[in-house]
Amino acid sequence: MIKGRAYTIFPYRFMRLGKDILLVNEAGEFIFMSENDFVKLRTYQLDIKDEIFLNLEIKHIVADTDPTLPIYLLATKYRTKKSFLNDFTALHIFIITLCCNQKCKYCQANSEDEARTDYDMNTGTAKKCVDMVFKSPSPAIKIEFQGGEPFLNFETVKFVVQYANQLNGAYQKNLEFVICANLLGLNEEMLNYLEEHKIWVSTSLDGPRNLHDANRITRKGTGTYDIVRKNIQLAQDKLGNDRVSALMVTTRDNVDKLNDVVDEYIEQRFNSIFIRTIHPFGRAAKEKLGYDVETFIKNYKKTLDYIIRLNLDGVAFSEQYATIILKKILTPFATTFVDLQSPAGTGISCAVYGYNGDVFVSDEARMLSKMGDNRFLMGNVHKNSYQEIFNGKVIRETIENSCVETMPLCSECAFQMYCGADPVRNYSVQGDLMGHRPTSEFHQINYLIIRHLMELIKQNDADIMNVFWSWITNRSIEEIKRSERG
Amino acid sequence: MIEGNKIVIKIDLAIYARIAALKTCYVFQDKCHTSLEPESESIFKVTLTPKKGSLSLPEIEKEFMDELIDQQIRVENDKLFSNIRKMIVEQAFKPISFAELKTKIRK
User: Span B2-80: which CATH code?
Assistant: First the structure.
């Protein structure tokens, strides 16, 4: 403590939210205070008996005693928030084939014709990829099959499952499989296999028929809604609702109709939606399917409000992006969401294995490669060792340039602990790994969503907070209320 | 001061740090083209030209000054906190015992 002062101030970042000041400590714990109290805090004029002082002390922003304990506790909490760094790469995405039976207008992967076989991952490459995966020190391994449409090369999917399970007999890791597929070619035999091997299914659904078919079409240009809807139901009936999920892409076609998309998800027995922005890769970069940040945020807020109201009317349904951010704000824990980490999850949390054994730091990096830019290619399973790939120049440089703690604007942002960096997107859109925050859409969207959620938290409306906690804890609002009553 | 379609702000370096002025200009780069030049040893001249004609110049000027104050506070906080921040991160990833930490803080 500085001599003559009644208390020590510990690191915090701050931001103005309306008339109040938001203060966030090093571990992401926050407090709102008045401008007047903020001035008093900084000028050491707070009375240590005041309620605001005690509240700040609980958040380790001030202490009137030995500072060792707050620093010790902040370090422990900081470590917990950064615990995603503990185990290294857990998510391994296999591009089973580049071929696809769809030709979606926003395809980020620039898929190839389904008749071709030269873009399929063969079992020799798949074996090398699985060997590489098991070199990861992570005790939990998730292998995600992507494409193209992975069901077009189902024999390799089966090979990977069989070989990974065989290897895991010795490694004893927590091993999971997910297949990300459009489900167009799903049949009974495939479903039986998915059930037998407990494989999760993630598919795509952009809304009701008119919105889904606006962009998700076959190679002949026909809509896919009816068959996707039928096969989602088949998968849900066979595997259970909780083992089947869907993702949507927000385009200019559905950006102002997101409530309709939510209704469709509910009708199709999903209990959550992830309102995702379109990524500027592949065909999506060429087609004019985007929108400005303002349009997206306006509609995101409207739909978030709609979803909150649905929950209050008894429909348990969550928005996944908000849930991830709320977990970061309201709990001491880290999330496993690789797209919003610092350092970025590129390579250290997620790696992508191309059909030919090329290994990339992320799926977007692989898409960039398909567009002719190998900036984020870490190596190839046929040519390089695990050390060369996962301890090489590409991953190191990518990670070094993705720490929000050192990035302009982010370094002093009060939302720093809740946010993250995307060096691949920065490079792709702005030509440099760090990017330029004031003009970055990635930054603007995240900032505005986090700010909106923080403003809702500041309102402290009991109903809204119950909905948020039900999303975070995956419990019903009734359970939340019961636990509050003790 | 508003001059035509530009805002000219003179920053007194006896009050604000140069880095606070630079960081404030950085924040405004989404709205304005920014140029900076030293007017004298103690005055820093910032010229903001809005990228869109629809933006209110007096509003931008006010926002800039508010942001400048916040950035100055951040600069001062950084001086105050940088050692503690390093200590917290170091303790998080390379922990030492409570007693050792106490000794380290006293030093």
Answer: 3.30.70
Nearest CA in chain A to B25: A438
A151-207 per-position pLDDT tens digit: 999 999 999 999 999 999 999 999 999 999 999 999 999 999 999 999 999 999 999
Candidates A123, A37, A111, A118; CA nearest to A381 is A123
**A1 in contact with B at a CB cutoff of 8 Å?**
no
Contact A66 B102 (CB under 8 A): yes
Nearest in space to A281 (alpha carbons), one of A434, A129, A94, A104 = A104
> Could you say which of A43, A58, A81 is where a domain stops?
A81
Residue with tokens 């928030």: A81
Q: Do A10 and B81 touch (CB under 8 A)?
A: yes
- The band of B2, judged by pLDDT with boundaries at 50, 70 and 90, is confident
**Cβ-defined contact of A26 to B85 (cutoff 8 Å):** yes
CB contact under 8 A, B30 and A76: no
Alpha carbon distance A437, A419 (integer Å): 13
Cβ neighbours of A66 in B, within 8 Å: 102
Q: Does A162 touch chain B (CB under 8 A)?
A: no
Verify that A151 and A284 share a domain, yes or no.
Answer: yes
> Quick check: helix, strand or coil at residue B105?
helix
**Region of residue A443 (phi > 0: left; psi between -120 and 50: alpha; otherwise: beta):** alpha
Q: Which residues of chain A have pLDDT under 70?
A: 1-3, 282, 286-287
Say if residue A21 is in the same domain as residue A128.
no
- Say yes or no: A460 contacts chain B, CB-CB below 8 A: no
Interface test with B, best of A74, A81, A297, A442 (most B CBs within 10 A): A74
Q: Is A67 on the interface with B (CB under 8 A)?
A: yes
State whether A67 and A204 are in the same domain.
Answer: no
Q: Within a domain: residue A117? A: yes
- Residues A249, A155: one domain? yes
Shortest Cα distance from A74 to chain B (angstroms)?
Answer: 7
**Final residue belonging to a domain, choices A354, A380, A406:** A380
Do A77 and A93 lie in one domain? The reply is no
Asked if A367 and A286 sit in the same domain, the reply is: yes
Q: Does any CB of chain B come closer than 8 Å to the CB of residue A78?
A: yes
Domain residues for A62? 8-81
**Tally of domains within chain A:** 2
Tracing tokens 């008045």 back to the chain, one arrives at A34
Longest distance between any two alpha carbons in chain A, whole Å: 79
Task: Give me the pLDDT at residue A115, please.
Answer: 83
Q: Which residues of A touch B93 (CB under 8 A)?
A: 79, 82
The answer to whether A161 and A197 have CB atoms below 8 angstroms apart is yes
On whether any CB of chain B is under 8 Å from the CB of A72, the answer is yes
pLDDT at residue number A330: 98
Kindly tell me if the per-residue pLDDT of B53 is higher than 90.
no
CA distance A228 to A208: 11
For chain A, the distance separating the N- and C-terminal CA atoms, rounded to the nearest angstrom, is 39
Query: Is the CB of B98 less than 8 angstroms away from the CB of A68?
Result: yes
Residues A412, B74: C-beta atoms closer than 8 Å = yes
Residue A279: the pLDDT is: 82
Q: How far is B40 from chain A (nearest CA, A)?
A: 27
CA distance A258 to A291: 14
